[in-house]
Amino acid sequence: MDYEQMPKAALIRLLQEQEAANREAGKNGIVMNYTGRTAPWQIIRQVKPKMSKIVKKYSHGEEHRQCENEIWDGENLSTMVTLYKYRGQVDLIVADPPYNTGSDFRYNDKWDKDPNDPDLGDIVPADDGSRHSKWLKFMTPRLWMMREMLKPGGVIAICIDHRELYRLGMLMDEIFLEENRLAVINWQKTTPKNQAAHITVTTEYVLVYAKSVERAKTGTVERSALADARFKKSVDEDPHEWKQGDLTGKGPSAAANYAIQSPFTGDFHDPGERHWAAKRLTIKTWAEEWDVKYEDIDLGDGRGKALALVGWKAAKSTAQKKAVIAAARKRAQARHQKGTWPVLYWGQDGEQKPVKKVYKNLVKQGAVPQSFWVDDKEGPAELDAVSWLRNMSGRSRDGVEELDAIVGKGHKFETVKPLKLIKKIISIWCRPNGIVLDPFAGSGTTGHAVLELNSETEANRRFILIEQGNTDKGDHYAKSLTAERIRRAITGEWAAPGKTKAKPLAGGFRFLELRRDVIDASAVNALAREEMIDLLLTSYWDKTEKSRSYLKRLPAGSHRHLFAVNAREEGFFLVWDAPDKPSLLDSEAFRRVVEEARASKLATRYHIYASLATYTGAGIEFYKIPDSVLEHIGFNSRTDAYNNEAVHEQAHA
């Protein structure tokens, strides 16, 4: 094999497959095996990008808002392959796949031979002996594709319950690698009920993996009201809120093992089996802020030299020692009455062991995420070191009630993830201007969560939702539920009585239908003008613009060539009237382009699509139809072997 002659993308793919093959051989850990297993990259290689259509009827918001977010109606594996421009660009994937309950999972046997088949198949019954292997065959290529969509520092958070937890965990370890596992979150989905024969199941799980643990970032979570309540205006009238803290640290330390004498009682206090957590000079400075002075003295207690009141060492009799303590107490009590006590204090009455004031404005405002999320109304605030604060997750019931309030009852969704849960995941693992992908969008909780977070903080995250389900009547959930919920969230027009007008959320989205026909040169060349514009809008990607790489569509028919503008106010022009008419960028066409750009006060860099170009000039960025269009969506035989069987086989010959 001549590696030097291989295209870059084909070489990368070969290396990735070799890495996966090593795992298959058991070199890097456990690999799952089940009936009908096929390597995921072999399945995905057969999946072709599909044509798509922007449906204005279901899109919502002003044009500059529509182009920020996307809701796709289509089978999710094909849709992810079609979303070529987002490959390697997604910050966070939130996935809530079917749990294989016997009532929520469909499997199409044709997928084994043709993963392009759009049919979702039949419900897999709970008594199907092969239901677990079918579920794994369904999930494996989709998880592989999700990994491809993530940035190098991207994260996936996938929800699951006990039915497939172990199999999903092993599959995630195989595809994402065990060392990239960030967390297994246990969240309380419901309150306990005393109706189970053995144990009441009240929790579900979120498996969190990084594409690369070295490059992923985990944010903090906001402090709870309970944690903040410990900070309050106290008896010393300190203008700053504080709470009592420990002056000692865990474990012994020879350098910080000594006694401190109280100026109130004269008693010596040592750290016991712990150690003083501040430097000796700092401890002494804090103690002397009680208007007393300290000196070093050996008490003969086997510890280091104690901090004793000045005069204690020289005092020979009991009466002299009492006099030293009495003088110190008088000064310390006077300081106590003045208020705003020093950082080191001796309890509220001055008669206790030394403790520390911890000021709220000096405490880290975010808490480190923990792996147990319990509802606000249930359970203690903490469960040792693995408990999150009580208001972190919400419950499944909350998710259903939220959906009822927004779209009305009758949606037939019995389990819906609560906004709190999804918002918390997004706030921890997606940067403020990042992209969130949900391949199993369902009722659209992820999109709603993104919009709410954007409104609550200075963030402009974007979402891509994919929903492939439909009702028994053939109604697609993406239209009837997902898009409808997001539209109502944006407008504030909730269905619940008394909430006919909730607080509107800024945002918008494009609604796209994934079509059955595969994208190739003949399909592109057969497009009508508006269909061509749809394809150009959804396929264009300029990585130099990062998260702002989208095109704002202009009203149809407003210009002869100008159809969109990017974030840099550069115009995008299409020399294309119909499939059977000339598509030529010549001097006359360019003159019209310049006139339209000037009239719209655009920059003098012109992005022009046409089949042929006989004119070249300064500032022209020419995109050849169909070649450039196909390249944008990843369908290029010379540079990308991902979706090209012939090139792949040639590379392995």
Any overview of this molecule?
By secondary structure, the protein is an alpha/beta fold. Helix content is 29%, strand content 19%. It contains 18 helices and 30 strands. The strands form 9 sheets. Strands 1-23-2-22-21-3-6-8-7-20 form a 10-stranded mixed sheet, with helices on both faces. The relative contact order is 0.13.
Gross CATH architecture of the largest domain: 3-Layer(aba) Sandwich
**Mean of the pLDDT scores?**
82
Helix % is 25-40%
CATH superfamily of the largest domain: Vaccinia Virus protein VP39
Kindly report how far apart the N and C termini lie: 7 Å
* Helix vs. strand class: alpha/beta
Give the radius of gyration.
Answer: 32 Å
Please work out how many helical segments DSSP would assign. Answer: 18
Q: Uncertain runs with pLDDT below 50, 5 residues or more? A: 375-393, 638-653
Q: How many strands in all?
A: 30
CATH class placement of the largest domain: Alpha Beta
Major beta sheet summary: 10 strands, mixed
Broad shape: elongated
Q: Beta fraction of the residues?
A: 15-25%
The strands making up the biggest β-sheet line up spatially as: 1-23-2-22-21-3-6-8-7-20
Q: Can you tell me the CATH topology of the largest domain?
A: Rossmann fold
Number of domains: 3
Keywords:
single chain, 653 residues, alpha/beta, Rossmann fold, 3 domains, ten-stranded mixed beta sheet, five-stranded mixed beta sheet, 18 helices, elongated, disordered C terminus
